[in-house]
UniProtKB/TrEMBL annotation:
Entry's family note: Belongs to the pyridoxal phosphate-binding protein YggS/PROSC family.
Domain of life: Bacteria
Cross-referenced PROSITE patterns: UPF0001
Name of the protein described by the UniProt record: Pyridoxal phosphate homeostasis protein
UniProt-listed PANTHER family: PROLINE SYNTHETASE CO-TRANSCRIBED BACTERIAL HOMOLOG PROTEIN, PYRIDOXAL PHOSPHATE HOMEOSTASIS PROTEIN
GO MF assignments: pyridoxal phosphate binding
Domain Alanine racemase N-terminal, residue spans: 14-239
Amino acid sequence: MTPEDRRAELAESLEAVRERLAKACQAAGRSPDEVELLAVTKTFPASDVALLSDLGLSAFAENREQEARGKVAEFAELRPVAASRWHMVGQLQRNKARAVARWADVVESVDSDRLAEALARATASALDAGEREHPLDVLVQVSLDGTTGRGGCAPEDVPQLAETITRTSDLRLRGVMAVAPLGGDVDVAFSTLSSISERLRVDHPEAVDVSAGMSGDLESAVAHGSTRVRVGTALLGGRRLTSP
């Protein structure tokens, strides 16, 4: 496929996703401006990210640190003046915190005090070294199915984790993130996340982000207050293998 063909393919997919978002917002009585589209570019090349940037997107997500690191650098070479924000959305081990702090603008998958503390130390080091200019925005990932196999802390642990995050000036608590349980009722799951978000904002009014909804369930997420949907397959197609 030529770059021109790929651009046309991505443009068509992007238009379809934006139309879905617009209809979902209309059904929920919300403005489309209230919901950010986050392109999940994992396993896709930096050239696709560059084309999406050309089409007007500026928020991109990765779930593996090693793949993301190289992709962020390559994108910066392909589009050196393009505005972009990079989100880490995958499960993150503490020993990767230092590397992630070098390239991520947002980490959406913070699910333990120990990870938050590791990210705070890593961010402070990156700021001191001039490797980043701003504190790291983070979201608390919540498990909505009672397990931690796919990442996320228990709902009852959210207040304590939020306190850990806000004790440091190197992290900025921005809200919550969740993945709908496999085989579960997505409306129930996203309604639960909405309630968790409301309770969190009582003590942390700045934590307004609700990252929920993907290609298959974004309509439900928007209906329950999501402010950011994470779309991969519907935007980029089936997963492609790329070298990290």
